[in-house]
C-alpha cells in the first residue's frame, strides 16, 4: 500500500473529530474553573498543581523536584523556581533525602496541606464529567 493510502486510512473520521472536540471542550472548561479556584485562593494554577502532585505522589507524602517536573511536564529548573516560590509563600519545604543527598524532597507545610485540601475539595466537585478520575463515580 502506498504511503498516501496509509495516511488516508489513518485519518480521523467525523466521529473521532467530534469526540476530540468534546474532550478538548470539557478539558478547557475544567482548566478555566481550576484557574478561577486557584486564583481566588491567591495562588496560580501551577502552584496548586505542584501542591497536588507533592501530596498525591503514589506511596509517600512528598516528591522530588525531578518527579514534580515530570508530573508538571516542565523543565527541572523551572520546577525548582516554582518550588522556591511555593516555599517563599510558606506552602512547601525542602528536605535533603536521607538516602541520596543529591536529591531534595519537597514536603507540604501545614499551611500548604490545608490550602491543598480546601482547593481539592472545590476541584473534586468539577471532576464529575471525568468519571474515570475517581472510578466509583463519587463526587
From TrEMBL:
* Limits of the HTH marR-type domain: 20-139
Q: Which InterPro entries match?
A: HTH_MarR-typ, MarR/SlyA-like, WH-like_DNA-bd_sf, WH_DNA-bd_sf
One matching Pfam family: MarR_2
Which intervals of the chain form a coiled coil? none
What's the domain of life for this entry?
Bacteria
Q: Any idea what this protein is called?
A: Winged helix-turn-helix transcriptional regulator
From which organism does this entry originate? Paraburkholderia bengalensis
